[in-house]
Amino acid sequence: MSAADSAIEVRDLAYRYPDGTLALEGVSLRVAPGERVALLGPNGAGKSTLIGHLNGILPAQRGQVLIAGQALTRATLAWARQTVGVVFQDPDNMLFMTHLADDVAFGPRNQGLGEERVGQRVERVLELVGLGELAAKPGLHLSFGQKKRAALATVLAMAPRVLVLDEPTSNLDPRAKRAMIELLAGLDATLIVATHDMDLAWTLCDRALVLDGGRLVADGPAGAIMVDAALMHRHGLEVPHLALHRYPGQVFPQDGEHPHRHPPGTIPEYPGHEPGAPGARVPARGFPGGDGEDPG
Length: 296
Known about the structure:
Layout: E1 8-16, E2 22-31, E3 36-40, H1 47-53, E4 62-67, E5 70-71, H2 77-83, E6 84-87, H3 100-110, H4 115-128, H5 144-156, E7 162-166, H6 174-185, E8 190-194, H7 198-204, E9 207-212, E10 215-221, H8 222-225, H9 229-234, H10 241-246
Parallel strand pairs: 3-8, 3-9, 6-7, 7-8
Antiparallel strand pairs: 1-2, 1-4, 4-5, 9-10
Helix pairs in contact: 3-4, 3-5, 4-5
């Protein structure tokens, strides 16, 4: 897969915070259009820092980010932020207008769309996330689960080609979590999902990346990466409960059984997994402009 064929490519990315903390070191990866990628790792692994680089929230100190083959620079920053939409973990950071409809309209208006087309996007996206009847309500007055979906709507309204989500199911009750997973599973889009929710990653994603200490330590099919108990344990993660239920009675190797299975600093190669292992998902449905085309 060439850079031009990639939805996103990261080349030798490094970033150090002003206090001296090294957050990323030598991270390289490619994400193909239509892929659904789980970004896994313990707290402090560098997941949020990597997300911040994917549409220019954080500038690369070393290395490069390319979007659809185009280098992310000051000149391409506005285009990049329309192409790659980021949904933050805390929805309150994305809801600040008097009415929810205005929160969702904020992005398309700043893209220069006319009010008729903005209104069409707002209506379609709010219906998509199940909040159509709450358009006139202040976003900050919604329930937390509704806020999570509202924050997603504000990004979907800008018709990104790539959707990047930071902990989309954090702090949700079981019903709201199921609703969010079903919503994301139905989107016809390139997805990059940073999460500690291993069942979400197992259900939603075909590929898994593991970050730890700012380095990419594993990259492969989710159905192989996420059942490698030795790898999961070493990097502060666990095998998804759904995987354990899928393979009842199977004993997954523990870290002590393979102490040198994946030496630090190497990225193991995994064979392809059986079709549908991480998820025979619901059929994808498009969202307004989600394929990069304008819906209006």
